[in-house]
Amino acid sequence: MEHIYFDNAGTTPMHPEVIATMTKAMTENFGNASAVNFYGRQARGLLDQSRHTIAQSINAQKDTEIVFTSGGTESDNTAITQVAHARKAAGRHIITSQIEHEAVLKPLEALEEEGFEVTYLPVDENGVISLEQLKQALRPDTILVTIMMGNNEVGSQQSIQAIGEIVAESNALFHTDAVQAYGVSEIDVQAMHIDLLSTSAHKIQGPKFLGFLYRRDGINFKPLLKGGDQELKRRAGTENVPAIVAFAKAVEIVQTEKQAHIAHYRNLKQTLVDGLQTAGVDFEINGHYQNGELPQIISLWFKDCPSDSLLTNLDLGGVIAAAGSACTAGSLEPSHVLAAMYGKNSPRVGETLRFSFGAQNTVAEVEQAVAALVKVTTRLKQRKERR
User: Which of 10, 22, 49, 267 could bridge 246 with an S-S bond, Cβ 3.0-4.6 Å?
Assistant: First the structure.
């Protein structure tokens, strides 16, 4: 059976050019970038070149502001826990939103156990925080504000530049989880007043277990991982040069093709929505639609159709979607994002699917998905009516 993949927010297939670049580097550039021998110098050159490519993609002032990590989770954990510990003498108050990824929420929970105080800003039905509530939440002892750039479940985007400007007037540093936004959103860490930013390579057709943390020059804290002096003593562990080179290639591709990709994703979303409406499927869109949300993600409430039944039936028919974040897909817990947007008792919490598109998806695949959804939702509704 041929399977159609619409879970690109969970992970993307590696781009053929990225695979070729990584394979070449694995074959020819096996040196340790910290070694002073020929192969080490060769690896160091590739590492430096890749860091420069990535630094330019977000308008970092210095290449050395990019610290390579194992991915978004490590980047988020490092930014949050290490900044908190480094700045606790100035205060123990942190601000975030209720719809952050678990890679942000769980380290914050751990910090609360250590005595830090966390304010969780609510969001409206579009998944957006109130700038006024952010201003009111800021205090003299607020040391960090961490607000995600684009949500991984519903695609809502925050007003990052406005948030950055507000935080810049305070004593706090500003961190944003840009894992889903990087590659489809315009990011300028200078204009947006971003101090720390997290990404992950496998969301942009790069390799897994790799990402970077942007750390504005002058922000000092101890490394999360203790060991060698790699990454200018900021992240211990031998750099995975082949994967980093591949990451840089993925960045080059998305930077070149970004506008074409965005137009493609929006066309796929419109095809999905139009097809479902034409077929008379009873559904609603969660959050914004074609109004500033991430272009590759759409969250749909299929009324009276449980998410788990939808997913199972679609998967058996060869259509792969998601009910929320892939990192929590194995959990029976309801979506904290939808609960924050609509209330924990809303039927949307248990009757929603997320479709997230990649460059490899086609209109024909979306049309096949519409046909499958028509069959599955009709069958599930009939089953409920017979009870």
Answer: 22
